[in-house]
Amino acid sequence: MNIVIETHSVKLKSNGNCDIIDITDEIQNLINKLRFIEGNALIFVVGSTAALTTIEYEPGLLKDYPQLFEKLIPSNQNYHHNQTWHDGNGHSHLRASLQKASLIVPFKNSKLLIGTWQQIIFVDFDNRPRNREIIVQLTGVKQN
To answer: Any idea what the CATH number is for the domain that residue 103 is in?
Structure first.
C-alpha cells in the first residue's frame, strides 16, 4: 500500500465582513475526483484575514457566528494595525488569528469523517469582498 500526497487549490469569491461559505462539498468532491479511499485532508486558507472551522451550517448559527466575533473583537475599535496600514481591517486579522487558517479532517471509504450536522466552513473576516484561495492537501491511499 502506497501513501500518496496531492496538493490542490480551491478558488472562492467572498463578500468579506464575516462571510461564511460551506466548503464541505468542494472537499468531498476533490476526494472523490482524485479517487482517495482513506487518509487526511489538510485544508489551509491563504491570507491573514480569513479562517476555517466546522459548524452546523444553519441559519441561526450563520447569524450567531458573526455576532460572537463582533462581541469578542469589535470591528469599530481603533486597532494599531489600522494606524499602520490605514485599511480598517485590524479586527479581521485578529479574528482570523483566533479562528486559525488550517484544519485537518480525516476520511475513510472516500467519505469525510464528519458529523451529520457538521460542515467545513470558510470565514472571510476582511472588510471587503475578496478572491480567495484554499489549499487542500490530501494524504492517503488511492484506488487503483
So the answer is: 2.60.120.460
